[in-house]
Amino acid sequence: QVELVESGGGLVQPGGSLTLSCAASGSSFNRLSVRWLRRIPGGEREPVSCISTTSSTSVYYEDFVNGRFNISRNFAKGTVLLQMKNLEPEDEAVYYCAGLRSCSSYEYDLVGLGTVVTVSS
């Protein structure tokens, strides 16, 4: 049974940076693609970025990322990172990582409990 745990959230000023981490227990994690999602206060959960599990790992970003975020994974450690820079108040949200079969899917096999990102001066 794989469980996902997000960490790295916190308070950052506009223009600042944070790195979120998604850690998994269970060896099957490396067989899953991983998507970062976020829920803005009062809003719906939305996708942010996805990374595949193929040998030629593919990455995907939503348009609003606009080159500010970088997703990566470490198969040896069983982690997926989301490096975020130039954060804006609009990025304030609860960020979740989710495991899924493919980045072309929006059905999640499992989702973590989230980590809170606050962007404020």
Q: What fraction, in percent, of the residue positions are helical?
A: under 10%
- Report the portion of residues in β strands: over 45%
Q: Helix/strand/pairing class, anyone?
A: mainly beta
Largest sheet: 7 strands, mixed
Structural account:
- It is a single chain.
- By secondary structure, the protein is mostly beta strands.
- It has no helices and eleven strands.
- Strands 2, 4, 5, 6, 9, 10 and 11 form a seven-stranded mixed β-sheet that branches.
- The protein starts with a strand and ends with a strand.
Keywords:
mainly beta, 0% helix, 121 residues, seven-stranded mixed sheet, four-stranded antiparallel sheet
Topology:
Layout: E1 3-7, E2 10-12, E3 18-25, E4 33-39, E5 45-51, E6 59-61, E7 69-74, E8 79-84, E9 93-100, E10 110-111, E11 115-119
State the gist of this model.
The protein has 121 residues and is mostly beta strands.
